[in-house]
Write a structure and sequence with these properties.
The structure holds 2 protein chains of 2 kinds. Chain A is an all-alpha fold. Chain A has 6 helices and no strands. In chain B, α6 packs antiparallel against α7, α14 runs antiparallel to α15 and α14 packs parallel to α16. The two termini of chain B are about 45 Å apart. Classes of the chains: A mainly alpha, B alpha+beta.
Chain lengths: ~190, ~775
């Protein structure tokens, strides 16, 4: 009795099975991890955009006399005592360090997901953050802004420009991650 | 500029007319256009490389702004308020072409001999920009006035129409506020956030072994005892004392006690006040106790073995004591703080004295303390009397941001260094008795179109133009930099107004207002014609100090040289037919290269010569806080020959005949072995005696038979009955009287080791590490031709 054996010729769609089941599982995992990275990045970029907007508002308040430099710098610089008092390091209240830490976290994530293009685009910003932190004025706690020099017009103008540039960068990255996520999800 | 209504009688202060049309004089300088015939003298080209004697023989005066004579009479005195360009360019582009800095130098609380004080119930101010009424406003009919800073038309209040001085009605422009550009108002309670504070003085004294060795306590206590009654204040004045070594000691001076009680707090990590009150006591009620304490203090610590100094905790305690009221803290420190919060490490490497690192603070403890003090209206003044490195860069922060002042006595010792002891005595006398203002704020307003972007001086910038000064004193100067945001096309005059609101030591709230008016010009030649070279140099010095701390000293030096190169090359390129092989400068800027060279050789900026780090930092602090007239003497001292004083050109001052010797160039070629020279450096006078000086001078003026017998450390001229002694002494005392801080005198013989102090000021000479004046000119010329 002749049994119909499937031939390895042009296969009909109904017989289209994946060739290596293990590879398929791995590919499926890599696919979800990259997409997961992009999704997380999307959410966190929304937080970064919020920080950038807060940054712009804070400097605008200084410029238009709404707040004085000592109070404003205390808001912008994290105070170590406050951080220590709260058991869980609740740094969401302060501005500078959370932004840098979130961005560093992105870079680590993209490194793990092997998304080299995205990592390469974020590298300059990481380097800028490191440079900015290293060349901050002498102070005992972590922080970037010194109340005695912040009212100098050139430093104030620099900080405002920095705020706008970061906002633009984070908005662009938001859309880029959105595109990246859809691309990764679709191209399977 | 709008012309005022022509239909009014001449009694009114009409909005002033400016130039009588545009006089286009064509000059031989080709390509330069002059707008007013009074300009040529300051624009006269001077060939710097050929003309060897550019230093004028009498001291340089401030340039007078080119205004009509009525305005010129009313304008603010240049000693209080001075601008780097007396002709303001109309646009930012024109200012950039001139390559000169635009800024103001202020000395707002200067001691004044005549000051109109106005006690009116209404202080007339513009409704929108809050400018005080000043001599440069325009009165449009009888009832309205137009603000000269924002152009808004305001109403004249009813009380203002009456003039109490002339008892006349209807002539608001004759009132003293409108006839004087420097006035003082007595402020009403709208200007007070809290009732005016009393004068509160706290003295924080270092009593470690080092300090007792140096022996400053005797001098301080003696000076305080003498001047206790002359401390500015009224019946509410309060005083207190804190001493510290490795613990902090407080003194209970409560009125009923038989003797002062010392309370020691040894927990320096968490300093607390041992008693809630009676540490700061009323001066008049506890005067006997205070005098007992001052008599006993120098002897209390003679056998101390404590070598540590807990300055940080002592300051924290002082802050706690002063926060309810505010006032002044005077800190006397003799070594590096080595214990407790704010402790500092030695950062200077003695083998690397030419290095220029460590110009900024090592810790922000003192800066934070100064900001806290400034918030509580307390100023911290520092007297540093140390013989070794004490990190003045970090300690100075306590005074810089709390509007205090810094005094520095290197190598202080009460017996080995009598010059410094004398200086401390004189400085203390001035410091304790000079006028003082408490809880002050200052605001500088300018005509619409100009804006101020950077402030220099011992102050805290609380908002874009509000400066918070916890204390204001008559020896503090400030500088600001301005930029032209909008073109000044619709006006021909700009005005600047400084308003200083303070509480006087008698508890009155007062406002001192200075107003300066300057013309606007449209051509580059006029900008150069009105350049004020001394003000420009002082502003550049302030900017260079900021640049050295934020980037590096060599950047600051390069920036100073570039300032000269750029401005002179901009001038040369506008005058098209001048030869390129010589260095031409306009008469107004002919001293610019000389002053910049002197600045580069100043202790603050010099490289290549061994300079102690504290000396350098102190020179930088002085540059930022001294008013212009003292700063110029520091940068470019005046040199006179005094062994041949004659009666020619003498002036009569108060029945005294004062000889006026001509100024000499600061160069060793002007010194001769047969002469004696006096150098006026502001806070110190040097008299240099040449080896073969005439014996008659040594006998008649110094009181010694010959050169060899003159001692090394002579600090006073004896009062001899000879003509030359009288002339010399009257000249020196005339120089002394012209400034509030009494300078010390030092006589230097030609072979004494102190000779370097004198010779370092001869800026026109070549040294191993720096150019001579002529070489500097050639260097500039080379840079221009590149």
């Amino acid at each position: 009795r002749a049994r119909a054996r499937p031939r390895s010729g042009p296969a009909s769609p109904a017989l289209l099975l994946p060739r290596w089941p293990r590879g398929a599982a791995l590919a499926a995992m890599a696919f979800t991890f990259a997409a997961f990275c992009y999704m997380l990045a999307l959410l966190l970029t929304a937080a970064l955009i919020f920080f950038a907007i807060w940054h712009i508002i804070a400097f605008d308040e200084l410029k238009t006399d709404y707040k004085n430099p000592i109070d404003q710098c205390n808001t912008l610089n994290p105070t170590v005592e406050k951080v220590k008092k709260i058991k869980r390091v609740k740094i969401a209240l302060k501005l500078v360090l959370p932004e840098y830490l979130i961005h560093a976290f992105f870079c680590v994530m993209f490194l793990c997901a092997a998304e080299w293009l995205t990592l390469g685009l974020n590298m300059p910003l990481l380097a800028y953050h490191i440079w900015r932190y290293m060349s901050r004025p002498v102070m005992s706690g972590p922080g970037l802004y010194d109340p005695t020099t912040i009212m100098n017009a050139d430093i104030l103008a620099y900080c405002q420009k920095e705020g706008w540039c970061k906002l633009a960068f984070y908005l662009l990255s938001f859309f880029y991650y959105l595109y990246g996520m859809i691309y990764v999800l679709v191209s399977s | 500029m709008q012309p005022s209504n022509p239909g009014h009688h001449s009694g009114f202060q009409q909005y002033p007319q400016q130039y009588p049309g545009v006089n286009q004089l064509s000059s031989t300088l080709g390509g330069l256009s002059l707008q007013h015939s009074q300009q040529p003298e300051s624009l006269r080209p001077v060939n710097l490389t050929q003309d060897r004697n550019i230093l004028p023989v009498s001291p340089v005066l401030a340039p007078v702004p080119n205004l009509n004579s009525d305005l010129r009479k009313l304008n603010c005195s240049p000693d209080s308020f001075r601008c780097t360009l007396t002709n303001i360019p109309q646009t930012q582009a024109l200012l950039n072409k001139a390559k000169l800095p635009l800024g103001l130098l202020l000395h707002p609380f200067r001691d004044l001999t005549q000051l109109p004080v106005i006690t009116s119930s209404t202080i007339v101010r513009c409704r929108s920009c809050r400018t005080y009424i000043n001599p440069f406003v325009a009165f449009i009919d009888q009832r309205r006035w137009k603000c000269n800073l924002c152009y808004r038309v305001n109403d004249v209040p009813e009380e203002f129409m009456y003039n109490p001085l002339t008892r006349s009605y209807g002539e608001p422009h004759k009132r003293p506020e409108v006839q004087n550009s420097t006035v003082e108002f007595i402020a009403s309670s709208d200007y007070m956030l809290r009732p005016p504070q009393p004068a509160v003085y706290l003295f924080v004294l270092d009593v470690s072994y080092n300090a007792v060795e140096a022996g400053y306590l005797t001098i301080v206590c003696q000076s305080l005892l003498e001047n206790l009654d002359k401390l500015p204040g009224d019946s509410r004045t309060r005083i207190g004392f804190i001493t510290f070594d490795s613990t902090v000691q407080f003194y209970n001076l409560q009125e009923g006690l038989s003797q002062p009680q010392m309370l020691i707090v040894s927990d320096i990590d968490d300093v607390f006040l041992p008693t809630p009150d009676s540490l700061l006591v009323n001066l008049h009620e506890s005067k006997e106790l205070i005098k007992d304490l001052l008599n006993a203090l120098p002897n209390m610590f003679t056998n101390t073995r404590e070598t540590h100094s807990a300055l940080g905790p002592a300051l924290q305690a002082a802050f706690k004591l002063m926060s309810p009221t505010g006032g002044r803290i005077s800190v006397f420190q003799s070594q590096l703080p080595s214990l407790g919060a704010g402790l500092l490490h030695s950062r200077e490497d003695p083998n690397q004295r030419s290095s220029t690192k460590h110009l900024g603070p090592a810790t922000d403890f003192y800066k934070k303390l100064a900001l806290d003090c400034s918030g509580q209206q307390t100023a911290v003044d520092l007297f540093l009397l140390s013989s070794q490195y004490s990190d003045l860069a970090s300690l100075a922060c306590m005074s810089k941001y709390s509007a205090g002042c810094i005094y520095y006595y290197p190598s202080f010792h009460h017996s080995h260094n009598p010059a410094q002891s004398e200086k401390l005595q004189k400085d203390l006398k001035r410091y304790l008795t000079r006028k003082i203002g408490f809880e002050a704020v200052m605001r500088i307003r300018c005509t619409k179109g100009l804006s101020i972007h950077t402030f220099h001086g011992n102050l805290f910038v609380r908002s874009t133009d509000l400066l918070s000064l916890a204390n204001v004193n008559p020896d503090a100067g400030f500088a600001v930099q301005m930029s032209i945001e909008e073109s000044l096309t619709d006006t021909s005059l700009v005005c600047f107004q400084t308003a200083l609101l303070y509480t006087s030591s008698k508890g009155e709230r007062r406002i001192r207002v200075h107003t300066l008016c300057l013309p606007v010009v449209t051509s580059l030649a006029d900008v150069y014609a009105g350049a004020d070279v001394q003000a420009a140099v002082c502003l550049l010095a302030n900017m260079a100090v900021d640049r050295s701390v934020s980037s590096s000293l060599s950047d600051a030096r390069d920036a100073l040289v570039n300032a000269v190169v750029d401005s002179l090359s901009a001038y040369i390129s506008t005058a098209s037919n001048l030869q390129q092989s010589t260095l031409i400068a306009p008469n107004s800027l002919k001293l610019f290269p000389l002053y910049i060279l002197a600045l580069l050789k100043q202790k603050a900026f010099r490289t290549g010569t061994s300079t102690r780090l504290d000396d350098r930092i102190y020179a930088m602090c002085q540059i930022k806080s001294q008013p212009l007239v003292h700063l110029m003497k520091m940068i470019h001292p005046n040199l006179y020959r005094i062994d041949r004083l004659t009666n020619e050109g003498t002036i009569h001052v108060n029945d005294r005949v004062v000889p006026q010797p001509p100024l000499q160039k600061l160069s060793a070629e002007k010194l001769t072995r047969e002469g004696a020279f006096l150098m006026d450096c502001g806070s110190i006078f040097y008299i240099w005696i040449g080896k073969s000086c005439d014996n008659s001078f040594i006998k008649d003026v110094l009181g010694y038979p010959n050169y060899a017998s003159v001692p090394q450390k002579l600090t006073q001229l004896p009062e001899l009955d000879t003509v030359s002694s009288e002339r010399a002494r009257s000249f020196i005392s005339w120089l002394r009287d012209s400034r509030p801080l009494s300078p010390v005198l030092q006589v230097i013989k030609d072979e004494s080791p102190a000779k370097t102090d004198f010779f370092q000021h001869l800026v026109e000479d070549r040294t191993e590490a720096a150019f001579s004046y002529y070489e500097f000119l050639l260097h500039i010329q080379q840079q221009i031709c590149k």
